[in-house]
Amino acid sequence: MRYNEVSRHTGYLPGVFCAQGKEYSFIAQKKLWQRATSAGSCAAVLERTAAKIQNRRNYIMAKWVYLFSEGNANMRELLGGKGANLAEMTGLGLPVPQGFTITTEACTQYYEDGQTINDEIQAQINEYIGKMEEITGKKFGDSENPLLVSVRSGARASMPGMMDTILNLGLNETVVNVLAEKSGNPRWAWDCYRRFIQMFSDVVMEVGKKYFEELIDKMKLDRGVTQDVELSADDLKELANQFKAEYKGKIGKDFPDDPKEQLMEAIKAVFRSWDNPRANVYRRDNDIPYSWGTAVNVQSMAFGNMGDDCGTGVAFTRDPATGENGLFGEFLTNAQGEDVVAGVRTPMHISEMADKFPEAFQQFKEVCSILEKHYRDMQDMEFTVEHGKLYMLQTRNGKRTAQAALKIACDLVDEGMRTEEEAVAMIDPRNLDTLLHPQFDRASLVRATPAARALAASPGAACGQIVFSAEDAKSWHAKGKKVVLVRLETSPEDIEGMKAAQGILTVRGGMTSHAAVVARGMGTCCVSGCSEIAMDEENKKFTLAGKEYHEGDWLSIDGSTGNIYDGVIPTVDATIAGEFGRIMGWADKYRKLQVRTNADTPSDAKKARELGAEGIGLCRTEHMFFEGDRIDAFREMICADTTEEREAALEKLLPVQQSDFEKLYEAMEGNPVTIRFLDPPLHEFVPQTDEDIQKLADSQGKTVEQIHQIIDSLHEFNPMMGHRGVRLAVTYPEIAKMQTKAVIRAAINVKKAHPDWNICPEIMIPLIGDDKELKFAKKTVVETADAEIAAAGSDLKYLVGTMIEIPRAALTADAIAKDADFFCFGTNDLTQMTFGFSRDDAGKFLEAYYERKIFENDPFTKLDQNGVGKLMEMAINLGKPVNPNLHIGICGEHGGDPSSVEFCHKIGLDYVSCSPFRVPIARLAAAQAAIANK
Ligand code: ADP
Ligand code: MG
Ligand code: MG
């Protein structure tokens, strides 16, 4: 237990104690403190009563409110980022208008109590209003020196613009007249009042900004002026009255006059804004848990709107777009709050402050330097100048582009402010994505308005002419045209068309739909799940946002934001700056996890090598069967009536598959290559069009009717859980035999050509649920491989391992490990089998799950550590003791997700495998995991 000095003023003892592993802040009455000390040990007594604490809040209360002078930067969990930094700046002696912070725990409590602020919290707030009045020498509603405050949200992680702020709270008809009179500046007083009514109404009562903006516009029109600052005191007074009337009209009640009532309402509104739709979406996109809650900061106002010797601004210590070292920001005179960013007037460059406010500017530059050195990172600050005097209102580590992040991290190392490890930890791995794909020209992008927004499924920018089928994409591409492929959804046979397209837009499907997964793998921009599109694939047209689009029309899509634009927005190729290599070099130095790639083609493999992949963790062999006329041979195999016929068809595939594998080994230059045997159900390969069916019938000497019968016979009620994976190798061992031959022959050839490379193929059997399945498939593999190796007189070594992607495999991993050289978690299947819903259908209900707070994330994107993760840990703990040489990896989509990579590091995997463009992300995330868990 820790406790602070007994507060002389209040007779309360603030402190912190631990009970049942949780820290409680408390304030104990002096009486209790004295009783405790006289009983011998205060700690013992308080700890003994810890269990009863919850019911005895009248003796020991949680501390819900902190003065800025009571906190510091390390308390961001409790005080939120803004509150913790206001406290830290106060501690540093910087000019911060004083106030207090209501904790994030109070927010959580507010929701627990059914969206009300309970009496205990209200009492503490009222107590702290008193303290604030003492500190500032001003009083709420006072007729001499009235206190005006801002009420500001502030979560643990910064969520800019997501929640709400109210300024100038504490004003009413009486107070505004006092201010007008005492200051001799009625224009200012009425400007504050009209702003307050506007913000309070908008935020607290959800009235909607637009009514007020309309009234302002009308007033300006009436007065023949264009700018807010040109309105007179009387105009603003009239506006305030109009606003109040508007409020009463909409709400049916008078605008509240009592400052304390205003404050409670405003605090509630900020708590409520934690749950507003845009905040919920932002949190999901940025991995911020709902349970964190937001703090509320109540701060006395500094006024930038008192005249031309006042103003307000925002600034960064370095350029957030490029990382260039130097003050970057904007300033607006006679303004308040969001005026700078809202674009009501054009602000001036921060450097122009030097002339207008020489003293305040000098001081501000010093503050910048103090803050940057203190936080050892680029700072994003908000400040106000009141009659030439500087006030700091906020500082935080500034958001920055990926490019700027890399430059700043390297510069901070060079400037001696950060170590290499710290620099690595500073980069958000998810940001790197944007560096690896073409981007829209920034200037053109700001001028464009999106026609719609859907899921940002695969990053990058694409601009091209609309086509509606994979075949058209291919043929248009062959003619040198740039196309965007728009489809209801994509399927494996669309792959070539997808490759030919600049970008892919689908009407259906989520972040792990076929289109999304494949596009990410190829590094092609993809926007998925745009349900606003009314699609007519047959007639090659669709409607979106009231416009009909036809084949050949231009469309631009942004896979990094999910935005869809009508027409042309030019793109520029991404450049990889020198700092990128430096940071990745450091990351490689510190990470423990190996990073492999999921690659099915030599070109993917080559790309992945360039991006630093140390091997292939998953080669999906079935993807190789779609190219060119290979699919014909594969279809022959499916339609075969006898084993002999099947073998004959497979014989045709053997050389092409072998040559593919040779190219993969070549591309990987002796690094490990894991090849997964045929996995999907066979129906995915059958012909769809009449033309193709006819062609197959002709080549097989069968009737169209017979082919239809075969296709029908392959129909499955639940293909995801049907005849696929190892089950294919059990029913058709000849398929596994052919694939083994191709793998081994290719390896022997490449080994001959490169004797110095360590070629050791890793054959991976998918979808094992029982050790006997693996035994059976492995027998086929080993017999075939050993015969091939003996015949070639080679000493090639190879491994046979298995995917762990069915819960039963994890549960019986000890038995399976006896026959497996390696495990690889196929977390896409493992997730859907564990949850019992398929990733292709989850899109239909996940939105409702987010809304109802059942899920915070898509478990197919972010690994479900509590469930799926537990199965993974179980498989490791069962497998390793049986087979100490077992090496273990992951090759689901999660292999490229930073928080999932950290989990993989913690549970002791040897490698993660992800799509080529995610390799740098995984490398960085692996390094961060190693550094954080040192
Ligand atoms: P956000 O988190 O959206 O940036 P803030 O809580 O920072 O919202 O408030 C927005 C703006 O309101 C600030 O940048 C600042 O200009 C103004 N503001 C907030 N509190 C005060 C205050 N006490 N005095 C003067 N201006 C304030
Ligand atoms: Mg702010
Ligand atoms: Mg699988």
UniProtKB/TrEMBL annotation:
Cofactor(s) it depends on: Mg(2+)
Catalytic activity: pyruvate + phosphate + ATP = phosphoenolpyruvate + AMP + diphosphate + H(+)
Residues annotated as domain PEP-utilising enzyme C-terminal: 579-929
Limits of the Pyruvate phosphate dikinase AMP/ATP-binding domain: 118-350, 361-411
EC assignment: 2.7.9.1
Keywords: ATP-binding, Kinase, Magnesium, Metal-binding, Nucleotide-binding, Pyruvate, Transferase
Domain PEP-utilising enzyme mobile: 481-562
Keyword check for Kinase: yes
MF GO annotations: ATP binding; kinase activity; metal ion binding; pyruvate, phosphate dikinase activity
Binding residue positions for Mg(2+): 805, 829
Residues where substrate binds: 620, 676, 805, 826-829
Active-site residues, record numbering mapped to chain: 514 (tele-phosphohistidine intermediate), 891 (proton donor)
Stored InterPro entries: ATP_grasp_subdomain_1 (IPR013815), PEP-util_enz_mobile_dom (IPR008279), PEP_util_AS (IPR018274), PEP_util_C (IPR000121), Phosphohistidine_dom_sf (IPR036637), PPDK_AMP/ATP-bd (IPR002192), Pyruvate_phosphate_dikinase (IPR010121), Pyrv/PenolPyrv_kinase-like_dom (IPR015813)
Pfam family name, one: PPDK_N
Family, as annotated: Belongs to the PEP-utilizing enzyme family.
Designated name of the protein: Pyruvate, phosphate dikinase
Source organism: Marvinbryantia formatexigens DSM 14469
